[in-house]
Backbone:
């Protein structure tokens, strides 16, 4: 979802002379706007759809910044650092916004607190694990062809799926059920990937992320 839409944004940014770091900044602004809607706007169908739209746009722009960098030859270490820092903030911010939103809608104790806190923990572990593995992994051979089955199996851990799930924010019980299911699936995926990455690094053999 994010890459096809990101290509549209990337082409528009390149044509307008907008650099990759500026695209990253706009991505961050769109995401923050979506988080403010989740945390501070009364829970309604409209606020959920609006939050989801903003998060999806922010996610697509996150894909666009790298495409702009490659398209214009403006890749840099500083830009890559900025992109990762914004991603790290997004991973924690979305669940912090859910926690605040839960509190504002009367779900201020017990398991309601554990869901976003647990999701934030899992998201950070997955993000850091993937980032470090990409830096520490031994050189690999030719990139294997993409696997459609693998991509589908990893979908529950994709930030874009979580972003789209906020269209249900205005139906709290349904959103909580989907949110909890995504947390459970992401936890399982993170555990499997962490085991795979650790074994690869311990054995010195490459493994695809």
Residues:
């Amino acid at each position: 979802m994010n890459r096809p839409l990101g290509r549209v944004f990337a082409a528009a940014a390149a044509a307008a002379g907008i650099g990759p770091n500026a695209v990253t900044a706009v991505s961050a602004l769109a995401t923050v706007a979506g988080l403010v809607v989740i945390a501070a706007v009364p829970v309604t169908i409209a606020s959920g759809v609006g939050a989801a739209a903003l998060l999806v746009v922010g996610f697509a722009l996150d894909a666009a910044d790298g495409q702009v960098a490659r398209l214009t030859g403006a890749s840099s270490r500083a830009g890559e650092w900025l992109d990762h820092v914004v991603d790290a903030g997004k991973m924690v911010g979305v669940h912090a916004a859910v926690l605040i939103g839960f509190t504002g809608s009367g779900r201020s104790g017990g398991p309601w607190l554990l869901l976003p806190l647990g999701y934030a923990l899992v998201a950070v572990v997955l993000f850091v694990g993937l980032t470090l593995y990409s830096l520490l992994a031994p050189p690999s051979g030719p990139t294997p062809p993409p696997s459609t089955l693998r991509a589908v199996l990893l979908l529950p851990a994709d930030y874009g799926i979580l972003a789209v799930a906020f269209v249900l924010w205005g139906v709290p019980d349904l959103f909580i059920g989907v949110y909890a299911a995504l947390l459970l699936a992401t936890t399982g995926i993170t555990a499997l990937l962490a085991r795979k990455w650790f074994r690869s690094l311990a054995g010195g053999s490459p493994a695809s992320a």
Notes: The two ends are 19 Å apart (CA to CA).
